[in-house]
Design brief:
Largest sheet: 3 strands, antiparallel
Shape: elongated
Structural class: alpha+beta
Strand content: 15-25%
Order of helices and strands: HHEHHEEEE
Radius of gyration: 18 Å
């Protein structure tokens, strides 16, 4: 797996250590990290809709149409919740010549 930037967890750990080194209390560190969590976003492009369909997050008809049209949804995880990006945020698989 290739990660273009540090994972959110690794970044949070480094921030926590840095804040503790600066003399912040555990409660202050917790409040700061929770604020950063709520303000950060992670974008994920899924390669298959199988598990989203099985969990009920995508309808069977929607998954079938996306598969036929080679549409891969982009999901946004912000704070502790995730939402699908609007239609313009979808990426499609390049077609083979």
């Amino acid at each position: 797996m290739t990660i273009g930037s540090p994972s959110p967890l690794a970044r949070s750990i480094r921030n926590a250590v840095s804040l503790l080194d600066q003399g912040k209390t555990a409660e202050e560190v917790k409040a700061i990290l929770e604020g950063e969590r709520d303000a950060s976003s992670i974008y994920v492009a899924v390669s298959t809709l199988e598990y989203l369909r099985k969990s009920g997050r995508v309808t069977a008809a929607g998954a079938a149409m996306a598969t036929i049209l080679h549409i891969k949804p982009v999901l946004q995880i912000q704070g502790v919740s995730w939402t699908p990006i609007e239609r313009f945020g979808e990426c499609s698989t390049p077609r083979k010549p």
